[in-house]
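User: I'm curious whether this sequence folds into something compact or stays loose and floppy. Could you predict its structure so I can see for myself?
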Amino acid sequence: MDERVRRELRVMRLYVATLTVLCGTLGIAAFRQTDQKQQFGEIDVERINVVEPDGRFRMVISNRERSIGPIYKGQPFGYPGGTRPGIIFFNDEGTENGGLTFQGERAPDGTYSATTHMSFDQFDQDQVVVLQYADRDGERRMGLTIGDRADVNIFDLVAERDSIMQMPEGPEREEALRRWQGPRNGVPLYAQRVYVGRDASRSAVVDLSDPDGNPRIRMRVDSLGIPSLEFLDAAGNVTARLPQGTR
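Assistant: Here's the prediction. I'll summarize afterward.
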C-alpha cells in the first residue's frame, strides 16, 4: 500500500470519528432538550400518554386500537385495551378515575348506534358521575346520572369476580355470583340516586332515588308536553301524584 492510500485512509478514519462524535453530541443534546416547549402546526398521532416524571399515567388520548384498558396503581386489570377511543384520566396514584369516550357507526342494514360518554369515578371504585348521550337507531337517551357505590376496592372486587368465573358452570357459581353482586355491609354495590335528562320515550325527566336506588320522586314532562310529579314507595308504587288523575 503506497503512502497516498495510507494518507487517504487516515483522513477517512478521522472523518468517520468526527462524524460519530458529532452525531453523539447532537443525540445527547436532543435528549437534554425534552423539557423544552415544542410547537407544531399539525400532528397525526394514534396515542398520546401524559405521564408524571416517574412514568405514572395522568391522561391517555388514543384511537380505538391503541386505547388503554383499566389501570389500578399502574397495573392493568379487568379487561384489555382496544375498545374505548377517547381520553382516560388517572389520579395521583396512577389509577383510572374517569374519562371521555365516544363512538358512532351505521351498520350495513342502515341502522346506527352512537354514544358519547363522560364519567368521573369514585376513589378506588367505578363511575359515580356520568354525562351520556346514547342513541340506537333513533331511540335516544341523554342525561346526567349521579350514583352511590359501596366502599369496596375495585381491584379486589374484580379479582373476586374473576375467581368466581373460574368455577365450573352450575348452581354453585350462580350462587357465588349472586352473593358477589349483593350489598356490602348493607350498602348496594351501586345505586343510582339522581337522573336528569331525556329518556327513550322523549320525556324530560328528573328522578330522585333512595340509597338503595329505588326512585322515590319523579318529575316528568312527557312527549306531548304534559307535566306530572309523582311520589313513590320503595316498591315503585305511586303514593301521590300531581296533578291528580294524570298517568
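Summary: The radius of gyration is 29 Å. DSSP finds three helices and 14 strands in the chain.
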